[in-house]
Amino acid sequence: MGGDHRAFLEATLPYLDVVHRIARHAAPGGQDAEDLVQETYLRAYAAFDAYRGENTRAWLAAICLNAARSEARRRRRRPRELTGYPPADSARAGCEEGGRADPRRPGELPDVADVVIAALDAEAVAGCLARLPAEQRWCIVLMDVAGYTARETAELLGCPRGTVLARVHRGRRKLAGLLTEAGVGHEP
Amino acid sequence: MSHDQMLIAFLAGDLDPAAARRFDEHLLGCEDCWQAVREDQAGQVAAELLRQPAPPGLADRVRLAVEVAAAAQPQPRQNRRRWPRWRVLAGAGALAAGLAAAVLAVVLPGGRAQEPAAVAAVVRYAQAMPHPGSGRPTVPVEVGHPVTVTAGGQRVTLRTWRLGGAEATVAVSAAPFPMPPGAKGMTGPGMGWSARIGHLSLYCLNGARPEIVAGAVPAAELPRLARLLPQP
Fold first, then answer.
1. What distance in Å separates residue B24's CA from the closest CA in chain A?
2. For residue A129, which residues of chain B lie inside 8 Å, CB to CB?
3. Residue B207 burial (CB count, 10 A)
4. Does ipTM exceed 0.85?
5. Fewer Cβ neighbours under 10 Å: the N or C end of chain B?
6. For the segment A104-163, what is each residue's pLDDT rounded down to a tens digit?
């Protein structure tokens, strides 16, 4: 590590927004998202010499998820400490199981045709997103929030692309349903 | 391909044009599929609301953290992989602006890497501040915005103030600041220390709220300057 930090910053800082979007959802309970971003960049800098990939954006995402996983594990080792939700760990959980089926019957969900997107509140969306099953939430965070492709998301999570697409679809439907139930986005 | 798989492939744009057209026609008559498509779109748009920019100051914080990490290394790497010129040029504008450029203009003397990480972060931040302008405010005026950095496991919040032609960086932390090599310990309440690093003087009080005041002024002036600054 050391030396050419200018090249490192030039190559990685353009993705700061993306890393922060992931960190906001990856940071385990009690960890500040900005601390996770800083840790991500320091880990990336330490590994920059060995990095040979062409997709810096995906590389940073993988480091961020690993850093969150390490922190979640570290916090779990502490006695009597609540760890919130350990998203990075659970992001991979169930990858081999094909995902969790949506338990909601179609008839139970109000018609979301009346959802008014302009009335949506980001905080409410984040709250509903946090209630999704981890494997669906992580596919949505990486694809819809951070802007990764289905293929990149599949590589990051170690799942087939088809699994990612199915989880995103189920997660989006569930998210829309939760928002509707919460009264967010309904037409007055 | 099951009905559900067909729907997901349709939404992902994976169907060939003929199959996509057939499924599109199917949607006109299938209320369940139409509902699923609309919910998918509503959920996607809602999630995309969370595509928000990083907060102001985070880029400065990351630059500072990397600068501190770089300064802690004794030798630059000789066999570094070279990045394509276009990549370097693409980031040159961002690099030229702001804190990083100022930081890079200052090279710490050899051996400074032995300073505790939190103290090194304070020094590099203080060195990065622009030189005082011609104005000589008689009340403290904050320069830039606060930056919080974690160095050596210690969380430090940094602010810089301009007063009477001098500038001082104030660093506060919940943990005591370790004493760097060559620093002089102080007796009395607070158990602080003072040090000279490069052209900066540092004055540390490890009291209830550990604090470092750093500035390019004689060390004897720092306590007086510190008393004139707003309490953190």
1. 17
2. 47, 50
3. 12
4. no
5. N
6. 333 444 444 344 455 568 888 999 999 999 999 999 999 999 999 999 999 999 999 999
